What does this fold into?
Amino acid sequence: MVLVMDFFISNKKLLGWISVLSVGAALIFAGTQTYPATGLFFNFFTIDFFAQFFRLLALTAVGLTILASFAFKKIPVSLHGEFYFLLLGFGVLLTVMGAATNLLMIFLAVESVSMTSYVLTGIQKFNKQSAEASLKYLLFGAVSSASMLFGMSLLFGATQSIDLLAIGSAFQSANSGMHAIGLVGLLFMLVGLGFKISIVPFHMWAPDVYQGAPTPVTALLTVAPKALGFAVIIRVLFYAFPHLASHWGNLLAVLSILTMTVGNIIAITQADIKRMLAYSSIAQAGYVLAGLAVPGVLGLRAVLIYLLAYLFTNLGAFFTVIAVERETDSNEVDAYDGLAQRNPFLALSMAVFLLSLAGIPPLAGFVGKVFIFMAVLKADAIVLAIAIALNSAVAAYYYFRIIRAMYLRTNKTVTPIQNPLSLQLTLITTFVFVLLIGIFPSHVIHLIEKALTQFPVF
Amino acid sequence: MTLFQFLATTAFYAAMLGILIAAALCVTVRNLFHSAVFLAFTLIGIAMLYFFLQAEFIAAMQILLYVGAIMTLIVFAVMLTSRMGNPAVPQSFKNKKIVFLPLGLVGFILISAILKTPWETSEPQTAVNAVTLGKALMNQYVFPFEVVSLVLLVALIGAIVIARSE
It folds into this structure.
């Protein structure tokens, strides 16, 4: 398994590369595995293509983040060993999260992933913002975990089982008196999980945390726990509550519209690029949620495609922010004025990532949005479709604001911005994937269809 | 129902009532130290419930860990917090009234859902002792157990990262 990764001590630089290599090895290992769906350890760890897909996603995100964090100078050198270890541990726990199919494992994985994120957020401990972000994250997280645990206890009490599939069948065979408790339990669980993926009523922590955390950590937090949070939500909804699909479908549709609207509208006025991208990532979660709001194979496929496209796009955007931040020491949008002259490659890659986030054709984000849109239209959810279209237009406005600053404005300082090797590597990787997914979506779709073959959809 | 059973049931409900009162006091009293004391009472009450439900080992652990270790930590934290005695520092939440409406709504929905549910009462529990618990942890539940150990490692390192001075 991935647990190969636990060697670390001494030389810091070397250490980082070892971590990257081990994640790479784990990735190759995970990529070549083709088991039939099996439950390991008495069904506490399920390996199916769905879990594999999310494992690849998590490992890619963690690997790229470690690589990019070499260039990030604000974490004290003496903490680098711990930092890499925490990131690797994060990777393992995310993998466990993707493979969890019962309440005990879901709680353990979600809780431990959150705990690691709190520490990672606060690792710049002499930075006031970072410490504040970490504390806020912890407090919000504790409350939402408590709510999730309470929901789980109701479900367990009602069905006498912690296995999601068993809970599902217990509810299906039970009389209608049981549905109320199931719904309440599901709602409480959704509160906890909704916190993880920062959907709107539970998003308050996200901007502060994403702004205060060290930038590589922000890049990871906006992508990996979110994707895995969706994985858990998908499993809970489709395994345990297929009979309530119309209920949670409507609920998620409302939440989705709320999430993308609030995220996008607040993002417009932000002057700090990390904060802007934070709100943008809230809005992106809204689009993904729209795919879940129309329960079915199409929606599920769209969600996975979107998550994959979003992974590379958002990581890339934040990596560019790291490159600019290490040179200018500023995250204001003004710092991006005239970036095209100071470093054409950075400006180009940032432009591509932003365009992809906005969903402009031949890029990855476009493919994701098309599939979400298609799924929503197929399900005749017209209101949802209109909301997505309007929101995409609003979002394009603030993405283009950055692009305009980079290309059409000039900056007083014209010194070129250096781009260290490790960052270049990560940027090129994400850049290439964003283009590839955009131009050849058929491979991705093939991969995702495979991921869903072992998934019991209704 | 024999007299003994009647007494046991009464004691059970009395314990639950006590827990509820202690918990309510814990979140409403103004002094943080009093609040900590009521929290300790709540935790002891929960340990009593475990005893009633024939989970002696868990009850012992509850008292040992929560009432013993964690409460000590909390009391220390309260003692070490400066400005604790300063009455100018607000220690309670002012907008209580606004919260009551949504809270009452959630509570109502919850209680009505719980009352509506035909709970399946399982056959009388057999007492679970430490040996069976340990065997279960090492057999069926070995993977969650290992994950917990990884979580502890991560938490330990995180705590060191945050607490150590440069």
